[in-house]
Structure formats: structure tokens, C-alpha cells
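A common beginner's mistake is to predict each chain separately and then try to dock the pieces by hand. The better habit, illustrated here, is to supply every component at once so that their relative placement is modeled jointly.
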Amino acid sequence: MIVELTLALALLSAIGITVFKSSLDLMAPRQWTIYQNISDAYISYEQAYAERVSFEVMTSGSSPWPVYPSRTTTDVEIGKFPGGAAIMATVIRTKIADANNLPAAGGNGTVETNPSEMETWQLQSHLTYKIGDDEYVKSRTVIRSQ
Amino acid sequence: MTVAIVVGLMVAGISLTLFNSQLASYRILKAQNFLISEAPQVNNTLNRIVSRANFFRMYAGMNDAISSENAVIENGKILALMFQGTDDNSQSFAVINFDEGNSRLDYYQVNSMAELAVASPSWNISNSIKDATFYVENGVLRIKLVGPNDEEIIYSSSTLR
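With all components supplied together, the output reads:
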């Protein structure tokens, strides 16, 4: 009797551990997928804003995208988990001048190489977030010219 | 005998714990469904529709939308998108409406906003939404959806320029 019960106990424990591990194995990639979906949705804002911001504001001293190597770093709430816990990430913005911009616009161009005084900027937004100990980065780059 | 009873109780206890943990896992997996299965499809649908529109307007309620009055830029519950045809007189409207009573996000295709009064939804974007809010931030249209378990996802999109 005791032998049978002990065997049943051992069998149940083994099944319990296996089931628990398979549940964890199933949940880890789902957690990753949730982060992917929420961060994909959020970073579309960075792209839309970079495409929409006026050239005047974008090139001003108080631009949301400062000239590289300066950058702005902002902690943002990108969404919420089931249950309402906030999902946080960090947005880093910077912009890089095209090499052919005139010196006043951060480039090395001259009136010979850039006679129309074209001004081109590369606006970069990087969204970083952590899942466990791993850090992930998603980037969007928008080219603006005038 | 005592040992047998104790071991028997342990077997029963472990069985119960196993059953409970299975139920808990199932509940967690079910709660994640909105963000995993529904959210990417909603994102895809909204982006395809909004990015093809010429411009948009938002309204707080259906009556305002029908009469095209009192447009808002925050806390909108109805999003009206205008599609310009090849000539100036051919316009059509796509309306995305959050139906709070039925927790649905519905899509209407109409030729004028007044048609909304009698229109039926052309299709249903999602039927498991607790809340939907349309607003504008820095000129960008943002759509905040709250799922059945208070999960939240924010989409952003812009129309044709």
C-alpha cells in the first residue's frame, strides 16, 4: 500500500514539475511577443512625429531632436500589461546633419557643392526596453530636407 | 496505517495543487490573448485605413459625428476619415466608432457623415475592447485601446499629406 502511494507521489511530483516547466516555457515567448507588439505600436508615434514636426521647430534650439552628440532621453509609458501594470521604456532622440549641409546647418558643404542651400537632417529615435536582464532597442530614422 | 494516510493526503494535496496551477496558467494565458492575438491585427487594420485618408476629425459622440459639429482633439470616441476621390465632388468617409455598450470597435463606410444616422457597421475591427480613445499629440493621431483585462496599447498614425 505504502509502496504504491509513494510511487504515485513520485509520479505526481514528476508530472507537476514537467507541467510547471512547460507553462513557464510557454509564457516566456508570449511575454516577449507582448513587448514586441506594444513597442511596435509606440514607436510608430516617433516616426509619425518626426515626419510631421515642422522644419522650423525641428531645426530650432529647442528641437525635440537635438544635434548629435547631444540627445534627449525620456522615460515613457508605452502601454500596460493585463491587470494594468505600466510598461516602461526609454526614448532617445537625436539628429545628424547631412555632410553637404552648409556649415551653419552642421555640414561641410559650400555654395559650390550645395548651391541651393539644401538642408538635410537624419532624425533618429531609439526606443529601449528591458525584458529580464536583456535590453532591446528599436530604432526609426526619418530623413527631412528643405 | 498512519503513514499510508499521510502519503495519501500528500498525493491528494499535490493533485489539487497541480490542478490549481493549471487553472492559474490558463487564466494568465487567456488574459494575454488581447495583446498577443488581437492587438497586432487591430494595429494593421488601423494603419492601413488611416494612412490612406486625406484628413481626419474626431468627435465625442455619435450625434456630433452625424451633424459634423463639435469636433475635438482629445477624448474622441469616433474617428471620421475623409477620402478624396479623383474629382472634388467625390468624397467618401470611413468612420471608426467605439461602441461602449457592446465593447466593440466598428467600421462604417459612408458617403456623407449624415448617413451615419441609419448606417450599419460595415465590419467589426475588434469586439473585445473595454475603451478606445482618439486624440492628437503634436499633430499625430493617437489611438489608445484598453483591452478586457485593463491592458493598454497606443497606436499612432498619420494621414496622407
